Structure formats: C-alpha cells, structure tokens
Amino acid sequence: MFIVDEKDKDYRFGDSGPKYLMKGPRSNFALVRFNAGQDFPAHYHNIMEENFYILEGKVDVYVDDEVHHLSAGQMIHIEPKEVHYVKNAYDEPVLMVSTLAPYQEIDKVEVPDYTV
Fold first, then answer.
1. How far is CA 28 from CA 25, 49, 90, 99, in A?
2. Which residue range is the domain that position 36 belongs to?
C-alpha cells in the first residue's frame, strides 16, 4: 500500500504532458494535461492497453485514423497495436486520467510522419 500526492509530481513538459502518479509494477496511472493546440506523437503499444478518462475540457483522440471527439465524463479504451494520436484542438486545456496495463518498462512504438 502507498499514497501519492499529485502535488509531489511534475508534468513531463513543465505545465503539460503526463504526470505519472504510478509507474508499475503492474500498471501506470497518470494525470495528463494538454494546453490548447498541444498534441502527443502518434504511437502504439505492443502489450499495454491504454485508457483515457476526460476530467475537464475536450480532446480529439485518433485511433487507427478514426477521430473520436471526447469531453468531460467520457472514456476511451485503446487496445494493444492500435495506433493512437491525441490532440487538443480546442481553446481550453484538457485534463484526463491515463492508465496503461499490464506494465511494461518499454512498450511505446512511435509512428513517424503520422498525419490526420
């Protein structure tokens, strides 16, 4: 058992990106913030499945070239090997929860030159 305080963790890019509250041993749990116009490179996972639950704002999640417009209260589940790209194309920040399981230290494969 352990307790983590979000205030003790940092976003990867200062004021945005993932903020991991837990990495392993069986799953990852992060808060993710994207400011207006920000995105995250297209990628997929060979083993891990990923979930995004939107807490605040709106975001577009592309999965295998199909766009899904999500807003607060919605969740998307992404299976292993599904290419996904996340973009905040809106005028306000988005805050969401991300979970990945089963935990793999290295399981992200970037997809260069991905266009939507």
1. 8, 10, 27, 5
2. 9-91
